[in-house]
Amino acid sequence: MEVKLFKGYGWKRCISAQDRAPRRCHIKKGFILLLTLTFLLSAIIYFSDFSLKTTVPPGTFYKNVVNQIRSYYMVIKFPSGRDNQTIFLAHAPKADQQVQQRTTHISTQTTDISVHYHVAHPSNYHYILDEPDKCQQNPFLVLMVPVAPHQLEARNAIRSTWGNESTVQGKAVMTLFLVGLTGGSDSEKAQQQLEEESRQHRDLVQSNFVDSYFNLTIKTMVIMDWLATRCPQANFSMKVDSDMYLNMDNLMTLLLAPNTPRQNYITGVVMRDRSVIRNKNSKWYVSEELYPEPKYPTYLLGMAYVFSNDLPEKIVEASKEVKAFNIEDAYVGACLKHLGIAPSSPPVPSQFRVYMGQYNREGFLRVITTILGSPQQLIDIWKDVKSST
């Protein structure tokens, strides 16, 4: 508004003086225009500088953020309504590590800083804790459990229940837990505790991505990489969440059935014709840039799905071509679609249950998987079910 008043004032003076001194008026008019342009340029610089300072952290921390985006973490700040205000999405590999240089660009209106992150292909990461010789016993079935680093209670509950079964119907079974990097002020102590737990149980695998909900796609792809590179001799594998009840006898009966394929097979809770959520306040939001189609391909619900062990290597290879997005089970479905492999419905779909409702022993004797409320509930139900068999 001040600019308009200034311009208006200058033109008024020029008109009133025009008859008396045309030449002087012309000089004043040019001078006023010069001042106006100077003022406008100063204003643009001022407000641009102010805007930049208000959208990034000040001082040294800002420089650290920029450096970390390039070499260590990716940072996205979500608006209110998300579970976490700030999520560190990926830990970049070491400088001497051979990795793919492909990146995916995230540029949504919810980000404070436009960032790049490494795609979910697991060659972008390395193992911190590993059990590379675990499969020398040639297991028939490998259970891979993605779990947060701090969820020791969940791991111990599984170790004392279905994760403790090393032989089922004469077939060798192995259970491993996959975790990412710990975060927070006590991360060093938490890491030391994980290393001690690993020495005690020899069932932890840890990779150098930051463990967060947004990173479940990375977590799943690291699972696939471990199976493909460390345990290709297994017949079947299962990705099963840490809050699940798993009936091992029913699962093994399914896998040993003569009509169960030994290649290109994956089954669980089949999700068909599911729309992509575009609401930015949703936990399951995916931008059109990351996944432009309005609906996902057919996929298996991520809580638990079992597959022939030829698939991990194929899925890892497909992930080189399929653009990563943050809904991990739908992303696996996109990789399967790329491979031309369709998920199979289980012979008895009701055996893969999302929730069982009120506890009933007979119901738990029939299912393969279902979600539970707590580690203690898993222990209690397991004891009760086993007491009747």
Automatic annotation (TrEMBL):
Q: What's the domain of life for this entry? A: Eukaryota
Per the record, the GO terms for biological process are:
lipid metabolic process; protein O-linked glycosylation
Judged by the first EC level, this protein's enzyme class is transferase
Keyword Glycoprotein listed: yes
Q: How does it sit in the membrane?
A: Single-pass type II membrane protein
Task: Return the EC number.
Answer: 2.4.1.-
Cellular component per GO, a single term: Golgi membrane
Similarity field: Belongs to the glycosyltransferase 31 family.
Where this protein primarily resides, as one coarse class?
Answer: Golgi
Q: In which pathway does it act?
A: Protein modification; protein glycosylation
Q: What is this protein called?
A: Hexosyltransferase
Q: Report keywords, A-Z.
A: Glycoprotein, Glycosyltransferase, Golgi apparatus, Lipid metabolism, Membrane, Signal-anchor, Transferase, Transmembrane, Transmembrane helix
Q: Transmembrane region positions?
A: 30-48
